[in-house]
Amino acid sequence: QAPLVESGGGSVQAGGSLRLSCASSKHTFSRYTMGWFRQAPEKEREFVAAISGSGDSSDYADSVKARFTISRDNARNTLYLQMNVLNSEDTAVYYCAADRTPFTTPQTLGPKVLNWGVEVLDWGQGTQVTVST
Fold first, then answer.
1. Residue 110 φ/ψ, nearest 5 degrees
2. Taking phi first (over 0 means left), then psi (-120 to 50 degrees means alpha), and beta for anything else, what does residue 79 get?
């Protein structure tokens, strides 16, 4: 299990932007779909976005479409989440996640966690994002 390390969280006012990063030490990083999930206090962990290993396809939760952009730099083994037009409902701990099965599609990442629980993916330690009004 290669560790995932998130960075870039913080506090921002509503309407502002943040960019999260997730560094992986997995040398086969480009084979694996990666994603972002978030968990607000007293709520379930929810899917935010995912991207294929090659970076040519992605998937988003409806609540973040057109505001968030997921990307990856396979040369740097790093995953990103650009978050724009943030609002208070985006306040949560954001987790980077890696599929354990290579060459899957981004659309499978969210359902995997819903159907089989968080144990099916590898996770980072989380980074707090707080949006104030």
1. -60, -50
2. beta
Tell me what the mean pLDDT of segment 46-58 comes to: 98
Q: How far is CA 93 from CA 12, 15, 89, in A?
A: 14, 18, 12
Contact of 86 with 39, CB cutoff 8 Å: no
Q: Are 65 and 48 in contact (CB under 8 A)?
A: no
Instruction: Kindly tell me the sign of the dihedral angle through the C-alpha atoms of 123, 124, 130, 131.
Output: negative
pLDDT for 46 beyond 80: yes
By CB atoms closer than 10 A (0-12, 13-18, 19+), residue 108 is: middle
